[in-house]
Structure formats: structure tokens, C-alpha cells
């Protein structure tokens, strides 16, 4: 059974930083293309970032480019989201997701492409 567990959320002031982590279990981590999504109150869940199985390819939504960095450590079964220069509009519940049906260097941006989801971690940015 595949499980994803996020951590690292919290309350931070605008301009601050947080690092989210997501640990997976149940299958070899290198099998998964990984993604981060977020959902703000009253809004749909939106794509934030994705990283390929190899780690060689990443992609981001425009609103977080140059501020957020997705990375992975296959030895630790963990994907990270380093978030710098946080803004109030980044406030949301952040979810990690895993996709099994990906080539080694493919990334995925559609929510429907992902097979497994974590429970989410709250990020609140105060202005």
C-alpha cells in the first residue's frame, strides 16, 4: 500500500521561508514522478511543481518560479519543496502526489495524472 506523508508546514511571515517534505512508502520511490499541489480556501487544488523520476526535469507554475524549488532524495524516499520569499497568496494546504505511469524524465502537471496523494500540510503566510 502506497502512503505519502507531508510535513514542514506552519505559520511564517511574508518574505520568510519554509521547506516541505513528503516521505513515501509502499513502492520504490524511484518509480514515481512526484508533484506538489496546493488548495486555498474556496479555490480549486492547483499545480505547484513537479519533478521527474530521475530528478533531472522539473517544472513550476509561473507564480512560484524563482521562489520555490522542488527536489528529491531517492535514497530517503523523500521529495522536498523549498519555499522562499513567501507571499500571503501562497497560503494554502499543500499536498504531495505520486504518479506511477511516467517515463524517467517526464513531469506531470495535471491533477488527474497522479495516482496517490498525501493528507496535506497547512502553510499560512501572514502579511
Strand residue content = over 45%
Order of helices and strands: EEEEEEEEEEE
Q: Uncertain regions: pLDDT < 50 for 5+ in a row?
A: none
Mean pLDDT: 97
What value does the Rg take, in angstroms?
13 Å
Total strand segments: 11
Structural class: mainly beta
The rough form would be described as globular
Query: How is the biggest beta sheet arranged?
Result: 7 strands, mixed
Q: Compute the separation of the termini in Å.
A: 40 Å
Number of helices: 0
Classify the oligomer: single chain
The share of residues in helices is under 10%
How is the topology of this model organized?
Layout: E1 3-7, E2 10-13, E3 18-25, E4 33-39, E5 46-51, E6 58-60, E7 68-73, E8 78-83, E9 92-99, E10 116-117, E11 121-126
Parallel strand pairs: 2-11
Antiparallel strand pairs: 1-3, 3-8, 4-5, 4-9, 5-6, 7-8, 9-10, 9-11
Amino acid at each position: 500500500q502506497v502512503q505519502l506523508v507531508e510535513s514542514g508546514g506552519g505559520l511564517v511571515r511574508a518574505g520568510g521561508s519554509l521547506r516541505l517534505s513528503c516521505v513515501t512508502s509502499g513502492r520504490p520511490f524511484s518509480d514515481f514522478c512526484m508533484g506538489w499541489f496546493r488548495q486555498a480556501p474556496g479555490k480549486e487544488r492547483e499545480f505547484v511543481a513537479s519533478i521527474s523520476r530521475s530528478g533531472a526535469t522539473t517544472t513550476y507554475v509561473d507564480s512560484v518560479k524563482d521562489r520555490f524549488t522542488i527536489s528529491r532524495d531517492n535514497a530517503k524516499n523523500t521529495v522536498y519543496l523549498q519555499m522562499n520569499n513567501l507571499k500571503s497568496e501562497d497560503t494554502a494546504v499543500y499536498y504531495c502526489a505520486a504518479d506511477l505511469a511516467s517515463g524517467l524524465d517526464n513531469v506531470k502537471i495535471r491533477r488527474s495524472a497522479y495516482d496517490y496523494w498525501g493528507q496535506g500540510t497547512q502553510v499560512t503566510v501572514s502579511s
